[in-house]
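Sharing in case it's useful to others searching the archive later.

Someone asked me privately for the predicted structure of Phosphoethanolamine transferase eptA, so I'm posting the question and my answer publicly. Question first, with the sequence:
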Amino acid sequence: MKTLNKISEFLRSSGMQSTRMIIGVSIWIAIFSNYYLWLKISKLGEESNISLIISFVFILIGVNIFSISVLGWGWLLRPIASIFVVGAASGAYFMQAYGIVIDSNMITNVLQTDFNEASDLINLQMIFVILLLSLPPLWFIWRRNFSKSTFGKLILQRLMLALLGISIAVVSLIVSFQAFSSTMRNHKEIRYLINPYNGLYAVFKKIDDSQKRKSKDLVKIGEGAYIEGTIDPIVFLVVGETARSDHLGLNGYLRDTTPLLSSRKDILSFKNAWACGTSTAESLPCMFSHLSREEFFDRSENYENLLDVLKRAGLDVLWVDNQSGCKGVCARIPASNQEIIEGNINCRDDGCFDAAVLNNLQKKIEDLPKPGKAKGTVILVHQMGSHGPAYYKRSSSDRKAYFPECDSSALQTCSRDQVVNAYDNSIRETDYFISNAIDWIKETYPDRPTAMMYVSDHGESLGENNIYLHGLPYSLAPDAQKRIPWIAWFSESFKREKFDENGCAALLDVDAKISHDNYFHSVLGMMNVKSEIYNPDLDIFKKCRKY
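And my answer, the predicted structure tokens:
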């Protein structure tokens, strides 16, 4: 304690406003910008919660003082302190509003978000909360000039201030070590809630992971791939967005959210399918990889993906995006974004419903390079689907069935029924799109074997336990974010050419557990692609096929 008193006396005697600013900002961030952390700890139901929160506050104050003192030299002090303040305020809002956590996956989502997606997240409540948590400390940071000190005095001051911060943190940790270590060990989600260090760690981890793989050459896979047979199929693969399996009428949901698909007798719906990630940035590259989920996230190499193998085998491959990009999956094949079509009933100023994709799709297919067409064509459509939080924007007014809807991106301001209504209407829009896609492919290519497969990238939380959207770490995410719809349809000519005379529906267990691990191999099997990379044990249609 004597050491702390001496340090404190020195800092007061130095007369430097910067010292008071650093301490004041550190206290503000620890107490106010971490209110969601304190709320979560208070609900853990352990006897030592109050004393743990008090000790944790002092640990954070000490760490903040140390971090800002060490990083904020010279003219960098105010910008560094401001970044801490605004970053912590932003993290606090999104964690509290949507029940998310900040990790490297969430940073990836932020970096890959386009303007329309970002604008859907902006609302008055967000602006108010971030300003409320940011303006007071920002005013404190920028209100006056700091008195100048000699270089030697400045170094001594910062060293003493950093030592003060470390001392506060260490003493507080020692006092509460048993409760602190037990809580962090038993409730791993807490580490993702510590502002602003959750975000800082996530950013540096993202940079480190990117640099490690960026320096690696692309590893080719399936180099000897070829097509067996000459039936010239055309297959429509729909990459769904944010659909959860338990909200499909086709899968037993109490609401008939899939009236068109449910009325068909030729639909296969796999009811126990699981995503390999909880966000598009994770799931999309993972589901198109030949690796299992565990292997994919532990990989150290950059591998080609399913689309490279299909192309190498001689198939024409086209990617059409009605979303924010293919996350690198379509980097080496023809790809296009769905443009807004003037006067089209499925388009608005800020984008198009998925049904608009069908309007000019045939021309895009005809414009593909000619040599591969004799072996077949694979069309991939990346849906807008049920992308949140503005679910109400994802369905056409004449196809909405459930009211009242939540017509705000601030989901926490709506009742859960309103949120679910808006989401379920978006599922009906997907039902409309898939059904129309099947009709389109049948009518456009009546003389070719055709098929359609729809698989969502991940699910969605709709307010259960105050959790919204998606993107939680896989180990913490509820099943709603991981369990997805998987739907398949095959034309009669496709079934005659590919499948056993008993058909496919009778041979498959649609309740068996499958996952994105099966996607790569099932598509290769559908297209009769022969390659050493193909694993028949992971092909969900293997039981149906003639060969």
